Amino acid sequence: MIGMLITALLSFILFFILTFIVYWKNRMRRKKIMRTAAGVFIFGFILMFAIAYAFMPTITIPNMLILNSIVAILFVPLVYGGGKVPVQYQTMHRSLSGVIVLVTAVLIVGVFVYSIFALQDSHDSIAKSEEAEARPLNEDNTPISVAPESARNKVQKAMSVVPNTQFYDLGKLQAQQVDGDIVYVAPVEFSSFWRYVRGNETEGYFTIAATNINAQPEFVQSKMKYTNSSYFNHNVQRVVYSAHPDHIQSGEAQIEVDDEGKPWYVQTIYKPLFFSNRPDMQEIKVAVVDPVTGDVETYPASEAPEFVEGSVSSELAATENEYFGKYINGWLNSIFGKKDVKIPNESGTESSVTPIFDENGAMYYFTDMASPKENIDSALGYTLIDARTGELTYYNGQQNQGIMDSKGAVQIVNKQYPEKNWTGTMPVLYNVDGHPTWIVNVLDPNGLFKQYAYIKAADSDFAVFGDTAKQTLNAYRLQIAQDPSNVEGSQEVDLTEKSGVIKRVLVTSTESRQSVQFLLEGDTTIYTVTTSKAPLSIFLKEGDQVDLEARIRENGTGTVETMQIEGISN
């Protein structure tokens, strides 16, 4: 309530100034002007309080200028009329009131112009860095999540377990880590105003594993009075606004669960740049709301409680990507020259970004960046934004140049099963053994998970589909190892000298290559050598003694660089 009262009062500053000038210049009508102004103010204050309560305008210079102008236009003429004060339009520009009105108009125009050029300042406020390549993906930390559409579909079907289920709808899914497991959390929200009046509080929330396609949702009963779908003073956005009317709220508050299973609503807020509403990325905070008591605790984004993964909302992350890519050289350059401009793709699962987790459980927002030139479907690189700090890392190494973007990866999946109408979703670019690789969830028309797709980003014809993330990853790595055009992808793996006796041999021939796979006695590594590297390998047989140098990866495969075969090689 305090925030709304302050906003309503601040919107009358111009009204007070103009009214005082009228009062001061018309001595004979002062009592009448005073009575009229008091009545107009009381009526207007109630009206503006109702507007502030309903729309919650942030207390910023641009917003206050606009609100003051509206209040002055609506209510100052009532003071003139009620006080029977004559208006001389021909001398308006010479009067103090006219000067103040003119200055206000100039300030509004100035704010509009400044907000355009403030885009560069907002870009400069981003904590950013550039790196060539992301760390390689391995089997132990495969950060593949179930697509939120698939998770939501399962949770929707489980809504019948909620008491008085007819009162509720499923709220926003939020990916987070709870007790070491990556899960989706979704609150139960009121379905309408009358359901809120009848129910007064919601029943709890659902969780479902985000890394297991066979997982089933679990309902956790936890009464919540302050929610996104509650009305009046129980609405989370209104609670946060009342505590911080001078901060802009980014997106809808999301639910996060602490290690004891208690839910909290988390709302990203930020202070805008002075004289504009553009975000200052150095002033990101997070308001944590207790859904039972409505108490609000506010922290700098990076200092939020440990259970909060998303201090920075997906909406603000999307804005950060846009400012980082478009306004690197200012607003004018984003329209005309477009030097170094990058446009974020909109293939993400939340506000055009996709939340992913690293091997340590930290959450990041992924987005690939494309050229502003039309009909160009190659990616320039990609960004990862730390969901707790807002720090942006741009990956634009040589291996990421000329690769397809996320839209191209999704199109490949969509064309794979046209008769089934399966579609790709949640494309994320990973570094798999040195190869930029798109990993895409494949869903049926009902949003149910069907497969994973691993697509080599530099070769649209190189795609592997599988039922599980680990199975598909291993199959993809094996195909990479067998393809002679891909051996450069293992260059970061050190060479290892090996010798032994051949146990099993398999020769694979295609139109473009011949490769030999074999096992050594007492060694489970699957070795692959191409005939272009070792022409005599085509004659390998069980029992041959070999000496070789290979790049052996953690997934149990090895790419042979040199090989000597006893009795054949010189």
Walk me through this protein's architecture:
Helices cover 29% and strands 31% of the residues. It is built from 12 helices and 25 strands. The chain has helices spanning 2-10, 13-25, 30-55, 61-82, 96-124, 148-157, 193-199, 236-243, 314-326, 331-335, 406-416, 469-482; strands at residues 128-131, 168-170, 174-178, 181-190, 202-209, 218-224, 248-257, 263-272, 279-289, 296-300, 343-344, 354-357, 363-370, 378-386, 392-395, 403-404, 423-432, 435-443, 449-456, 463-466, 495-509, 514-520, 526-530, 545-552, 557-565. Strands 1, 11, 12, 13, 14, 15 and 16 form a 7-stranded mixed beta sheet that branches. A hairpin with a 6-residue loop joins β9 (279-289) and β10 (296-300). It starts with a helix and ends in a 5-residue tail after the last strand. One of its GO terms (molecular function) is DNA binding.
Shape: elongated
Helix content bin: 25-40%
Strand content is 25-35%
Q: Which radius of gyration do the C-alpha atoms yield? A: 31 Å
Alpha-carbon distance between the two ends: 89 Å
Total E-strand runs? 25
Mean pLDDT over the residues: 88
Number of H- or I-type helical stretches: 12
Largest sheet properties:
7 strands, mixed
Structural class: alpha+beta
Q: Which regions are unreliable across 5 or more consecutive residues at pLDDT < 50? A: none
GO molecular function: DNA binding
Organism: Halobacillus kuroshimensis
Protein name: DNA-binding protein
Keywords: DNA-binding, Membrane, Transmembrane, Transmembrane helix
